[in-house]
Design brief:
Protein name: Integral membrane protein
InterPro entries: DUF817
Structural class: mainly alpha
Number of helices: 4
Oligomer: single chain
Radius of gyration: 17 Å
Keywords: Membrane, Transmembrane, Transmembrane helix
Length: 126
């Protein structure tokens, strides 16, 4: 896997703001939507190159965050449906996990990505 045109400083600064918002939105305005828009802007032009077998693929980084967030949200719905745990709104019967959680997962995965990229010392080749 390789990153193309990754801007680590801008992405890291935004990831810190996203992380702070996860805690501060309980007493300050929730900035998830503006932060998501900034994340799309900051990662615009950044792509991930990866291989499956001998085939090489390329995907926009923001799209990878959205897809991972979607599949985590889907897994959360499956797990609650199967009874692995229940949220308060599911105590009297299963209901889907709120769609807003999909966005939260996508933002959270961007924070995780920045931590892993910094740990691995990722550098953009171009």
């Amino acid at each position: 896997m390789e990153l193309v045109r990754y801007r680590p400083r801008a992405t890291t600064a935004l990831a810190v703001a996203i992380y702070v918002n996860f805690f501060s939105h309980h007493w300050l305005p929730d900035l998830r939507w503006p932060l998501a828009a900034l994340l799309i802007a900051v990662t615009g032009g950044t792509s991930v190159r990866f291989s499956v077998g001998k085939a090489r693929y390329r995907m926009p980084l923001a799209l990878s965050f959205a897809l991972i967030g979607f599949f985590l949200w889907l897994a959360e719905n499956i797990a609650t449906y199967l009874g692995a745990w229940r949220y308060p709104h599911q105590l009297h019967g299963w209901q889907p996990v709120a769609l807003e959680k999909f966005g939260s997962w996508a933002l959270l995965i961007s924070v995780t990505f920045v931590i892993v990229a910094a740990t691995r010392g990722e550098r953009s080749p171009g």
